[in-house]
Structure formats: structure tokens, C-alpha cells
Amino acid sequence: MINLKVKVNDVMGNTDHILVEELKNGDEGANGDEGAFRQLVDDYQDKVFNTCISFVKNADDADDLTQEVFIEVFKSINKFRSDAKLSTWIYRITVNKSLEYLRKMKRKKRSAIFNWISKEDQESKLQVPDFDHPGVLAENREKARILFDAIEKLPEKQKIAFTLHKLEDLSYEQIAEIMQKSLSSIESLMHRAKNNLQKELYDYYNS
Amino acid sequence: MKKIDKHIEEQVEKTLGAFDGIERARPKPFLYTRLQARLESKDEHSLQTRILSPVLQRLAVIMIMLVIVFNIYTATRFFISPAATDSLSNSEQLFVEEYYPSTPTLYNISQLTINP
Question: Domains in chain A and their CATH numbers?
Fold first, then answer.
């Protein structure tokens, strides 16, 4: 059993609501209130970091991306609609930033093929090492590594849904809100993701 | 054969359950402090780009305008008919005499035409 518990709010949580209002009407004008921002970072840093590291599979890059997510939150808090859930909005920014990073790395990888001069340098940056998620139980480490490799081969939307569900313990409803899709399409994505992973893993163990 | 298939199926199921009991990964300590430093450096950078560069742009435009105005002024003031120089002050006349002499100098002697 997964032991993460994410706060599920039907409407935006009271604490989140106060935080957003404080940030929007902060004493420092458009930049918002520092105390409220610190509180927001404290409340969400683990969720944001865990999501980032699950996608990018590198602690330093995940740390960097986590900071970028909060800078984005800080800058665009005035665009946030108060009737929406703060957690959904922050998760959406986090997923988008992580995917942006992965696309950037893919582009670098492609250009590295044609780049004769700095070939070795770029390739060394792009090779994804065997990744150990810090939260995985010791006895599951080897299998988790194989599963991470298999997830990497999934189509993007299946990867997002599976990662958010399995690594962030988000419900299908929450994932539907984050990905701005219907509940049935998330169910379908998850079903296809599991089938694809089973096939991939079967091939892996059969080879 | 069936035994091998069953073993593989077990392995696949175990691998799919590898995230069971997973705990959330946490960032390095003092994230807020690092974030604050980054925000400050970004603020400084944006201040430089938002405030300094328009100021520099305006200064550059003003400088160019001043140079153009000065050139037009000197051209109209000194490089006109000799009669106009009568109304100039002593120092201005000295300036005209030095830079626009009425008698040819060594510098423009080659430009003179020799009548046969």
C-alpha cells in the first residue's frame, strides 16, 4: 500500500484560499506577501519536487525545476482563478515544466548526433543513468528501476497519468483536473498504460 | 514452457507493484532560501533589462540628436557666405579664420587651379 496521502479538496482548501488571497493582496504590491509565499513553498515543495524527480529522474534537475515552478507560481498568482484548486494549478505547472525539460533534453540529444565538435560532452549529459527514486523501498529498488525504464517508453499522456497516479498517489479525478480531460479518458489512459507496461515488461523478462 | 510463462508473469506483476509503499522524495534543505536568492537575481536582471536598457536607449537617442543639432548649427553658422561672418564675435571669427581660412593654406593648395 502506498503511504502518501494528498489532501483532497472538493473546493479550494481554506488554507490555500487564505494563502492565495494574501499573495494577491500582499503588501509588496504585485509581488505578493513574502510570508504567504514561504508558507506556500513549505506546503507544496515535497509534492512539486516528487513530481519533478519522477519525470526527470535526476535530483539536481528536479531541484532546479522545483524552483522554476515556484517562480512561475509567484509571478502568475494574479492569473490564478480563486474558484480553482491551488494544488491542481501547481501540479499543472509542475507537469508542464517537467515535460518542457524532457523535450529540451530530447532536442539536445537530436542535435548532438549532428554535432561533431562537442559530441562527447553532450552525450555524457544526456545519458540517463539508472535512476533510484529516493522513496522506493530497498527491496523494490531493482524492480523500480526496470519499471521506470518501461514508463519512459510510454506515450506522453499515458506517462503523465501513470506517474501522477502511482508516484504522487493522485486520484483519477485529480489527474483529470490537472490534465484537463474527462474522467473516462483518464481511465482509458491508465488502462492503456498498464497494458503497454505489461507488454514491455513481458518482453524484457522474455528476452 | 508453462512454468517459464508463469514465472515471467510473476516477475511482471512484481515489477508493476514496485512502487508500492513508495514515499515522497524530498528536496534538499533550505529550498526557500535558494529560491529567494534566485528570485532576487532574476529581479535584478529584470530591473536591468526593464529600467536600465530603456534609459540607455533614450540616452543614445539624445546623444545622436545632440550631435546632429550641433553639426547643423556649425554648418549654418560658419559655412555660409563671408558676409555673414561680419556679424560674428571676435572669438567666432578667429574660429572661422582657423578652420575656414580665406587664403589658401598648404592643405588646400593642391586644389588651386593655375591659370596660364
Answer: 1-103 (1.10.1740.10), 135-207 (1.10.10.10)
